[in-house]
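Sat 14:20. Reprocessing the chain from the morning session after the first attempt stalled halfway. Input below, unchanged.
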Amino acid sequence: MRSSSIPFWTANSEAAIESSKSELIAAASTISELYRWLKTGPAYAQSAAVGQQESVRIGVDGTRYPFVYLIPETYDSTRSYPVEFMLHGGVSRPQWGPGGEWWRRGYDSLKQEDRIVVVPAAWNTAFWWYENQADNLPLILRELKQTYNIDDNRVTLTGVSDGGTGAYFFAFKQSTEWAAFLPYIGHPGVLRNPQSGPGYKLYFENLMSRPLYIVNGENDPLYPVSSIEPFINILQEANIEHVFRAIEGGGHNTNWLPEEQPMIEQFKLDNPRDPFPTELRWVTDRSDRYNRNLWMRIEELAIEGQPGLMSITQEGNSFTVTAESVDAFTLLLNPEQIDFSEEVRVVVNGRPLFIGQVAEDMNTLLDWAVRDRDRTMLYTAALSLRVNP
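Finished this time. Tokens:
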């Protein structure tokens, strides 16, 4: 049996996923072979639809999440494409119907032959910074990966006005899928306001692993440069990678975009996602969501609702961890990241917590491949540890 004949990447129902996982495990002689199959990915069909397409994702509660996606007319299934999500403004409107009208300027200016562009929809019960959109955007990305050859490490999130605020939300709370964030004429302070949403606590440590390209207008009546400068000052003091463009005389618009576009494109080229950085940090006040950064996940907090911090440095098979107000965590391990033939050593708060070999497991590999749909972020082991066993 050839691995490419097993519909693992295109399986959607729970039964189809479990069946394809069982077939892959039966067909693979070793976990190394299974890992190689998953890293190679499927043979994408050249017959996939191109041009402007409109679709809808149905949530588990029946909510319809429409989105438009723009596939290059010259799409070649044998090469992988960067993806740019574009988040619109004006999210306080009623739920959108068919027709893709939420991007009011039309889609012609967004179409490009070197990338796939995704334009999802938000409305008054699905702001970009609500939990339903925190689920929706990654699931749209994973759905598209079943049909199109996507470069997993070049997926960016751009937003305008409320969409820019949405880009800040994902940067602060759920950054794993994204390579970079480009918030235009938005403001992160909106996220803290309980009158415009849940009123989140924002942790600047979470911005340290992804760069931002921020643009605001000097005379913007909503979010002028003067209102964003305190935030920019914190980014500078914390050495968080960012570009800030203050548009002289600019209002609440993107009239500056044509002139800024070459720098924006270079920024994207210069900042692919590294799925296995040797340093990670994350802060969360919830263990049920917003608790993961790439290969590290906080499983339990000392006090739910209060922030817990983890900072990890990896050197070969050794992990040095600082954990504050965190009771349990998981390290997701990759065979190109560590040597599974040698012992793994985890030191937490100066105390050796784990020293030993970690076994690779086919089910772990497949379970995380299903969750992430990411050929460059595969894990053959999950090491779960308690800080105070």
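DSSP finds eight helices and 17 strands in the chain.
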